[in-house]
Amino acid sequence: MLCNSVMFPPPKTWIKAQWESKELLTFCIKRLLKKNLNKVTLTNAEFVWTEPHSKRIKVKITVQAEVLNGARLEQSYFVEYTIRDNLCESCSRFQANPDQWVASVQLRQHVSHRRSFFYLEQLILKHDAASRAIRIQQVHQGIDFFFGNKSHTNSFVEFLKKIVPVEYRQDKQLVSHDVESSVYNYKFTDSVKILSSCLPKLLEMVCTKVSDNITLLDPRTLRSAFLDARQYWRSGFRSALTSRQLVKYLVFDVEEPPVCGQKYALSYVQIARESDIGNNDKMFDVQTHLGHILKPGDYALGYDIYGANVNDDEMDKYRLSVKNERFLEVILIKKCYDKERERKKGKPLAFTTKKLPMEMDESRGGGRVDQEKMENEYEEFLRDLVENPELRFNISLYKNKDYQEESETASMTDGEGAPTVPVEELLAELELSEEEEGE
């Protein structure tokens, strides 16, 4: 039996064998042949029934040997095997007392949603980064990871630094001290904070990617800029507008973008707020990097810089700095697929994801998490994966066995350009039966 914390794969000599199967009998006989059956001939072997919970395997073997002048003697023996389950040292210590952790990582993001943690969870699962964690707890605005060794914590923090800009601090607490041997036992805690915003003071830039660096795009020129973690935290960015303040716009006209091989296409679009349609004739002519996917009649989500009522000094400075110029009244972020989402609401997606074995920490605020809100945010995260190929590039998606393919007539109602996840990107999840899991 392998402990869940084992990082390396089992030896190649290990086999999967069901109870009283041919494979298990072969394995048991080979164990005897190596030591005791070198001078005799094995003629028969069979299992003798034992209670499965007894942790015992009994095998009846029949052997022959030449004793005198060609005469052969046959005799039967019963051999008993004992099944022993082993755990690694850290897991054995954790089973005895769950509080015997040595180091922990407190991962936090001070925002009102958990979509960033859903994405981080998939990256952690794909790279098996938390496999040595002896316990994982979900708390308010974050996740706590507990490890049995300080080196495991260091490896996990290094992994986080490679996938997202983080700011972290290390602390330790003295647990015990042996005066005679001068041995000190500490508990170590790494407090890791991940970025909470991508649209702070840079009001003319669009955040297109977040990894160990932040990629920013100017929707007027399509030029990119990059921020590393040190630059981000040193500048002390604050959120002027968040994703909760995205406004839906209706696209009336799109200037034909030039044909190019770039990822984005610069174009002028004429848009209006959905809430203004039928109430006033306020229209906006803005530049956008989404000229390759927008067409008249589409909806798009963007930040309303023109009508934003924000008590922020940086926003006021920005408006004054471009007083004599025409500033971006609207920054479009992405195309909106609400019609397709509404049509598929309540239906299973073609893919599913795995989840970390997290428990709720009610003593520290984890119990206050609204389950209904979390499920809605997780559903929104899955829809974002469908609409954004870049977002799902670094994570593993698995085929959903509950998904049923729609007919050709039904799929046509999605409209032209409705996003889907190609079947080629989905993995078949390995499922073991109860008998196989028991081995």
UniProtKB/TrEMBL annotation:
GO term, biological process aspect, one: protein transport
Keyword flag S-adenosyl-L-methionine: no
Domain 60S ribosomal export protein NMD3 OB-fold: 246-335
Localization, UniProt: Cytoplasm; Nucleus
Pfam families (alphabetical): NMD3, OB_NMD3
Keyword annotations of the record: Cytoplasm, Nucleus, Protein transport, Transport
All copies of domain Nmd3 N-terminal, residue ranges: 3-194
GO CC list: cytoplasm; nucleus
Top-level taxon of origin: Eukaryota
InterPro entries membership: Nmd3, Nmd3_N, OB_NMD3
Reported function: Acts as an adapter for the XPO1/CRM1-mediated export of the 60S ribosomal subunit.
Similarity-based family: Belongs to the NMD3 family.
Protein name per UniProt: 60S ribosomal export protein NMD3
